[in-house]
Every structure is written in C-alpha cells, then in structure tokens.
Design brief:
By secondary structure, this protein is an alpha/beta fold. It is 50% helix and 12% strand. α7 (136-153) links the parallel β4 and β5 (157-158). 36% of the residues are buried.
Length: 200
C-alpha cells in the first residue's frame, strides 16, 4: 500500500498542464459567438482530443489595436497568475481596418514580442492579411511585417489567422469579418499543428 508521502511525491512530480494565452482582438476573443464556440474554447477542446492537456485562456479584447494590446500586456500577464507556456499573439487586424501606419503597428508588435521574450515566454505569432482596397504599397508592407517580426524575434509564425475562412460567406458572421462557429472550427483545425509544435 502506498503511503500518503508517496501520493504527495507523485503529485509533486506530475507535470503541470500547459497554459496557452490567446492574446489578441475580437478574432481570438470569439466575438459574436457563445463562449463555448469561440476560438479559445474550441482550441482547448481540439488540443485535448489530441492528448494535449492544455488550458487555453482568452486574452482577446474586441476592437483592440496593437497599441491598445501593448498597453494591457503586463497586467494581462499578471492576471494569469503564472507565466503561460505559450502566447498566441493575434493582432493587427484593427490597425489594418483603420488604415493605421504599418510602422506604428510594427513598433507595437515589436514591443509586445520583446516583453514576452524578456520573460522567456514562447510565442506563436499569427499573421493577418490586408484588404486590397488599401492599396498595393500598404498591403505589401503590412503583410511583410509578420514574417519580418517572426524572423527578428526568432519565433514561429502562423501565416494567416483566417486561413480557409476569409472571404467565404458561409464561414463568416453577417458582418463579413468574424468567423461563425463553422469558421472557428476550420481555423482551429488548420492552426492546431502549429500550436502543438510551438508548445514543444
């Protein structure tokens, strides 16, 4: 029969389940959907089906630009209670929709990535694409920002958060911007391998 001390030692030896923090805007926050159908909940379910006992915490705030997210990064991390094992940085869509200067967005994302690096927190950078009506110069600069930042900070990158969903009305809410429940499932399915790899 095992002693109480044995149980205690076993509990102490058990690895802590990884915590993933989805730090972003309305796309990762699950805008327009019940909490159980949003990105973080569905990613957590998908990970556990894949035998990864991770907890995914929602750090998305609808409407946030990269600057607004930068301003809340430190207190958001404090609110987690412990350093996460991975942060999915999903930002830039609102900067793009407002036509904010790409240099401004890049600066704020750079500060966010530097802060996470200083805390030794692994990152998966989720990219975004720009609307073509913003002009070729803007689109080129905006979309080049993500691979450049990933290379600079030596972090893995998921090229496009809305891959497989953007532009498909059947997978979007009536606003044409945010994924519906079916769209979220596609996002999660496509991103899952990158998340699992980044956790390693």
């Amino acid at each position: 029969m095992l002693s109480l001390a044995g149980f205690t030692q076993a509990a102490e030896a058990a690895p802590r389940a990884p915590v993933i923090w989805a730090f972003g805007d309305s796309l990762s926050a699950g805008y327009g959907l019940p909490p159980a159908l949003g990105f973080t909940a569905r990613l957590q379910t998908a990970l556990r089906r894949a035998k990864v006992a991770a907890t995914v915490r929602n750090g998305g705030v609808a409407g946030d630009t990269a600057a607004q997210a930068r301003a809340r990064l430190r207190w958001g991390l404090r609110g987690l209670g412990a350093a996460p094992d991975l942060v999915i940085v999903e930002l830039g869509a609102n900067d793009m929709l407002r036509g904010l200067p790409v240099a401004q967005t890049r600066y704020n994302l750079d500060v966010i990535l530097k802060e996470l690096h200083a805390r030794r927190i692994p990152v998966l950078l989720a990219g975004m694409r720009a609307a073509p009506n913003l002009g070729t110069d803007y689109v080129t600069a905006f979309e080049a920002m993500y691979p450049a930042l990933a290379k600079q900070h030596k972090v893995p990158r998921y090229p496009f958060f809305l891959d497989g969903v953007a532009g498909n009305r059947a997978l979007l809410q009536p606003d044409g911007l945010h994924p519906n429940a079916r769209g979220v499932e596609i996002i999660v399915k496509r991103m899952l391998p990158s998340v699992r790899q980044a956790l390693k």
